[in-house]
Design brief:
Length: 112
């Protein structure tokens, strides 16, 4: 089992920045891919970004060039640096590991 704990999100103004982190514990040696999904009110959960253990990354089109995902395998931590935030980025952000372990979610609200 892998447990994931996300940092607290927050309220930020448009064009501002925020960094999320997610720390894994438990059977961390079995962790491969990690990443972030988000879910806005009334919408389905969708991929934001993911990263392999080797550092290959993938981004949703809507966040390319604004968000950066990274990870520190020694610290079992994945990060999401979010820049140039827009009101449409408002959502609950969930980190995951191996697509079968999920964090509790953290609210990010971007005001216009």
């Amino acid at each position: 089992q892998v447990q994931l704990v996300e940092s607290v999100g927050g309220l930020v103004q448009a064009v501002g920045s925020l960094r999320l982190s997610c720390v894994a514990s438990g059977l961390t040696a079995r962790i491969g891919g990690m990443g972030w999904y988000r879910q806005a009110p009334g919408k389905q959960r969708g991929l934001v970004a993911d990263i392999t253990r080797g550092g290959n990354t993938n981004y949703a089109t809507s966040v390319k060039g604004r968000f950066t995902i990274s990870r520190d395998n020694a610290k079992n931590t994945v990060y999401l640096q979010m820049n140039s935030l827009k009101p449409e980025d408002t959502a609950v952000y969930y980190c995951y590991a191996n697509l079968n372990s999920w964090g509790q979610g953290t609210q990010v609200t971007v005001s216009s």
